[in-house]
From TrEMBL:
It comes from the Bacteria. The keyword Signal applies. The keyword Signal applies. Keywords: Signal. This is Putative exported protein. The lineage of its organism: Bacteria, Pseudomonadati, Pseudomonadota, Gammaproteobacteria, Moraxellales. Residues 75-135 form the DUF302 domain.
Length: 167
């Protein structure tokens, strides 16, 4: 697939949303940021963690395991950058979920498989640990999935993330 320069720039802009956070965000409540790329709106929730970077990652991984979720991968972007002699802020993406919750959704809408498993980003910018994930309503937007289909699964994962890093 060949992407136009405009499309690549839009995707890059969407991926660089965390660099605009100010240092005063330390006490920010849950905030929703919208990113527009290729006529699609992606709504990402970003919340400040009350824990340091490593503790935040560890607490999230433990919380997912305690709820019998599978951690499919933890992607360490900072480590990958260091492998090619580049420097960047700490950033890890945890890819997690459970086939018990996801399979019925993918059966109802096969294209929903592109949105699963769930992902959460933990990053640290200017001493501030931020946790970002796609809002449940945004995740199901444009799919055949209704909120009633996910209120006891995906929506609960969102609540678990928020509770784990703020309490």
């Amino acid at each position: 697939m060949v992407m136009s320069l405009t499309a690549m720039m839009a995707l890059t802009a969407c991926g660089n949303h965390l660099t605009s956070q100010s240092s005063s965000a330390k006490t920010m409540p849950t905030q929703t940021m919208e990113h527009h790329a290729m006529n699609t709106t992606h709504t990402t929730k970003t919340i400040a963690s009350r824990y340091d970077f490593n503790d935040t990652v560890s607490r999230l991984q433990s919380a997912f395991k305690d709820k019998n979720m599978t951690i499919f991968a933890t992607i360490d972007h900072q480590h990958a950058a260091q492998q090619v002699d580049l420097d960047m802020q700490p950033a890890k993406v945890i890819v997690f979920g459970t086939p018990k919750a996801g399979t019925p959704l993918m059966k109802k809408d096969p294209h929903f498989a592109l949105k699963l498993p769930l992902k959460v980003l933990v990053t640290e910018t200017d001493g501030q640990v931020l946790v970002s994930f796609e809002d449940t309503h945004a995740l199901i937007a444009g799919s055949q999935i209704d909120f009633d289909d996910v209120k006891d699964t995906l929506a609960n994962a969102e609540k678990l993330i928020e509770k784990t890093v703020t309490q």
